[in-house]
Amino acid sequence: MNIELINTGSELLLGRVLNTHQQWLCRRLADLGYNVARQVAVPDTARDIPQAVREALGRADFVIVTGGLGPTSDDITRERIAELLGKKLLRDETIVAHIRNYFAARKRSMPAHNDVQAMVPEGAMILPNPNGTAPGLAMKVEAGKWLVMLPGPPRELRPMFDDFVTPILRRAFPLETPFVCRTLRTGGVGESAVQEKIAPPLAARVGQVDVRLAARGAGAEKIVRAAATVVQGIFAADIYGFDDEEIEQVVVRLLTEKKKTLALAESCTGGFIANRVTNVPGASVVFLGGVVSYANSAKEKFLGVRAETLAAHGAVSEAVAREMAGGAREKFNSDFALAVTGIAGPAGGTQDKPVGTVFIALAGGFGTEAGHRLNLFEREAFKQLTAQQALEMLRARLVCA
Fold it and tell me: pLDDT at residue 169 above 90?
């Protein structure tokens, strides 16, 4: 069976709002074992919405439409779809009561126009919305096809999908065979290198740098487990995690297990590594603190980088990165300290040190190790990649410790 997604909202096409529904719903459906055949975004217009729904129903068995169920003038999804299907809109008093209670609980008066959300196409199933005012709607249309309408806000859409849409899917389209998917996340290995190494033993079952292994059928679990063993045997310590695991989560876990602490000295990343580490629950047990030493004076004052080192080698150098890491470890009395210094661009590069140059250093009881990278990306991607490389250096050391 085929599933299609239609995301409504002119703001999506203007680039003003990130379309997170596509990624979240596709992932959720894939995890359940259902294939999404197509997804589109259309503006809030009387012509585009019904046209997209008509075309989707002509191809797919299950169509999900997001957005356009609110009370404002551009929320026209329910009206236009009702017209398309030749259904009357009927006022549902239980929805009106829910909307009134929603506003009363927040000590706010209910705007008169909000009761438009209580208009339901005849024959539609109402999907309750405890997190907002607009209910979702599900309709069985001709030839056993289903059409589901979900509200736009993610905090309303996601629990509604899990609680009400998933059971409809399972009842209407039960899966005959199981589906298994496992992702192995590698660090420090290029995409082409991953492809080259795993293609022969796994034949067509090849993913990307995130190696995604999937199988459907009675032996799916066994097939995926065996394939994962092959990949792990090839890459060993290069695999830092599985499925949705981020490298900062792995680093915090390893530090916690080994009862070690971390300090940071960041220049070109501007605190981005600290941000990633502190996004992990429990990081306070192992992360002592960090210094964002953007200026040379800050490197000297807070990290003890010597003026003669800066003069001889420049702020972006292995020597300075080493002293930054050593200084941070000393200041915070930590077991490990990571330091990064580089040129994010777009200006500031030289022939010897072009834009994208990065030096990363890791200090610990073993001494200090350092590495040089050339990250030729715009500033935000440069910071993201540099942080990843620094955390990978620490992870590799922790795995071997």
Answer: yes
